Amino acid sequence: HQHQQQLSSSVTASAEADEASSAAALRSITFSNLPKDDEPDVFCDFLMEIGACSAAVTDADAGTPREEAVFGEPSTAEAAWFDSLHWASPVWNRCNVTAHFPASIDLTDVLDTVRTIFPEHQIPDTVEQVPNKDWVIHVQSSWKPIVVADQFVLTFPWHDENDIIEAVRSSSQENFIELQLQGGIAFGTGEHATTQLCMEWLNQILPDVLDRNNEDFKDDEVWVMDYGAGSGILGMAACKLAQQLETNKQLN
């Protein structure tokens, strides 16, 4: 009972502070050490239903000797697929569930609801304020230029010359092909292994294909199709490697 009073006081004080702050302010609460059998992913969905604007499951044992990798693929045995309805989303043995709530949500009601429906869950006794910052600038500042295939350096508009010099410092290559990308929802920032492997392949094959002295390719017309181009990074790389390629575009 004393714990409930302390929690109620903490949440009430937090709510009063929120009233004096922006209506867009976010509060974060974390439910710790939930066993896998308690279905933390389902609990995430529940928190979203009662007002959370985001919820995430993380490994409570991360960075400790008890940490275990979770791959979660069903068995390749045919019988396992017949039982797929009983296969749940993979989570760790012990999980932390963190949820963010806007200032318009009464956290006292949220925690009372959780206490009633999930009595086995340990109710957090602290509420954290999420910093009010420009998250776009914050993400951009941590996103450095990427060197791919020791040939390309992938940049975004906010990178300057010093950022590029720092990124290529450890490479023996002197002349890089710079590809400037625009941040957006399309796939193709250059970080994914499939993108980098394709760029390496282009870097290896195009010089031979375009060599008019190469008997295997000298009479061929050269086309490169970046199908499902996303940000267009592979098409851009091909055009930089082969200026004589005809340039086209994808329409969404």
Task: Describe the model.
This protein is of the alpha+beta class and about 250 residues long. Helices cover about 35% and strands about 15% of the residues. The protein has helices at about 1-20, 40-50, 80, 105-115, 135-140, 160-170, 195-210, 235-240, and strands at about 25-35, 55-60, 95-100, 130, 145-150, 150-155, 175-180. Strands 2-3-1-4 form a four-stranded antiparallel β-sheet, covered by helices on one side. The longest helix has 18 residues, at about 1-20. Residues about 80-85 have low confidence and may be disordered.
Layout of secondary structure:
Layout: H1 2-19, E1 26-35, H2 40-49, E2 54-59, H3 78-82, E3 94-102, H4 107-117, E4 128-129, H5 135-142, E5 146-148, E6 152-155, H6 161-168, E7 177-180, H7 193-209, H8 233-241
Parallel strand pairs: 6-7
Antiparallel strand pairs: 1-3, 1-4, 2-3, 5-6
Helix pairs in contact: 7-8
